[in-house]
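Deliverable D2.4 — example input (structure tokens):
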């Protein structure tokens, strides 16, 4: 019985070492993706914040339209298109 327990402990130690090596290898593989995924995380956070504060988004768009009067039509079309895409992907 004692021999069997020792074999189990050795097997456990081997598995622990193997799992540490796999974690290290995975960390090396993920490293190049950290920066692009950070951009995606920030974009998702911004979209969630915009969804929670639609009046803020409308105010910013109105201020932008006021500042850029000459391009108002283009900005309005872009805003309308963005709103349509938003409504397409976000359903209440």
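Example output (designed residues):
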């Amino acid at each position: 019985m004692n021999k069997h327990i020792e074999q189990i402990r050795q097997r456990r130690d081997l598995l622990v070492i193997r799992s540490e090596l796999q974690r290290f290898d995975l960390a090396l593989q993920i490293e190049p993706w950290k920066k692009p995924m950070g951009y995606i995380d920030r974009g998702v956070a911004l979209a969630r914040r915009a969804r929670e504060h639609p009046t803020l988004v409308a105010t910013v768009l109105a201020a932008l339209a006021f500042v850029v009067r000459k391009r108002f039509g283009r900005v309005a079309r872009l805003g309308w298109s963005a709103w349509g895409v938003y409504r397409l992907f976000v359903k209440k």
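The chain has two domains: 1-52, 54-92.
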